[in-house]
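PROTOCOL LOG
Step 1. Enter all chains and additional molecules of the complex.
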Amino acid sequence: KQEVTQIPAALSVPEGENLVLNCSFTDSAIYNLQWFRQDPGKGLTSLLLIQSSQREQTSGRLNASLDKSSGRSTLYIAASQPGDSATYLCAVYLGGSEKLVFGKGTKLTVNP
Amino acid sequence: GAGVSQSPSNKVTEKGKDVELRCDPISGHTALYWYRQSLGQGLEFLIYFQGNSAPDKSGLPSDRFSAERTGGSVSTLTIQRTQQEDSAVYLCASRLDQETQYFGPGTRLLVL
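Step 2. Run joint prediction.
Step 3. Record the structure below.
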């Protein structure tokens, strides 16, 4: 059974700091991996999608990496801003399945 | 429409009552998903619709839960004889081909 773990569960940083969020998964037979952002009381917003054949994806100040062999992904946020405060969720598509398996998220607070 | 919409945004009901939650996916999206997000838990897959194929109901927690998708568009998630443990945020998402899933804002269900 695929399990997705995110560490840390919560993170508080001062504005301007670079930070890394971690995601690990137990079964490397994934189709792709996605990072989402969830704001309080809102739905999820897709940030980055990495296909299983890719190593990383970049969008603005965000960079996500994928290492299938070790079952790990990281989300790097450069020059953090208070508007980055949210819960960040990692999810994997299982190979041969249409299901997304989610981690429990990392709650990020960026203090001005 | 511009995005996935869900109604109602909030629902308070009494234990034992039936509830219906509605999802309007993005026009043209062939895949539709329902998830549940309980307090302190990750997102839990409930059910998946793809075109005219039989839905994947493997995530439904009990036979009190059912869902249908009419005309390949709007979907309704029905919970019969609600229990307090059904209290959660119910999220709907839609997807076109192999692209990312787009999530609605969710319905917050509270069973008293």
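Step 4. Note key features.
The longest strand of chain A covers residues 30-38.
The two ends of chain A are 41 Å apart (CA to CA).
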